[in-house]
């Protein structure tokens, strides 16, 4: 029997305090990256990996997310009447990407708690978790590689990326063992946001996971960790050290990743993506050079 189609979970209940006052009334996931909200890039990535059932975990004042992925007949009619086929297609594409569902997290108690809210939707099947702060360039495969690795060994799969050791305190860090594939490692331990001197490596967890349903029972008994939140990293640590289970493996990503969770990196992401666009790049790239020369 072929495996069941995988579902994806996108946690989007955070308050976005680093982007205030822009996020006072607008969800941070709806902040535009060039001309699409950040969360649309994530949904598009899931769809490109063959996932068409997506659960978004939201909090209060997040209705703009569901509105974005809904159809807007009056806008579509207006664009059609104007003969604006290009904008009409882009508006309709966002409504047709996937079958998108929503559930409230309620109290914001961390990523682990947000993932636990997906239990009723995903059931007893493996599923992907995709964080909206990390945008993966559509030209670089990551999620498809992770799904394929899970299908080979049935393990939990996390995405890892080498970072400057001075920055490892901003991430979860992985202790790993090599495999026959230089881009696949076995994870032997995980530490959430360690000090540089305590980090087991400079391999940082980035926002893509393929999880098995075993994660839910572990999350149910996981005590709050750093920041008083239920940390997904703590639950993954238990899976990684369970000798009786399939373990945790990491896919080491060496492609293009855009971090939109920080104000400076958010601006960099917009610049990088806009410069690569065929419709914007030819005009922008010479201007970037001229502007840089004035600094």
Automatic annotation (TrEMBL):
Entry annotated with the keyword Transmembrane helix: no
Keywords attached to this entry: Nucleotidyltransferase, Transferase
GO molecular function: UTP:glucose-1-phosphate uridylyltransferase activity
Catalysis: reaction(s): alpha-D-glucose 1-phosphate + UTP + H(+) = UDP-alpha-D-glucose + diphosphate
Database matches in Gene3D superfamilies: Spore Coat Polysaccharide Biosynthesis Protein SpsA, Chain A
Family to which the UniProt record says this protein belongs: Belongs to the UDPGP type 2 family.
Name assigned to this protein: UTP--glucose-1-phosphate uridylyltransferase
Gene name of the record: galU
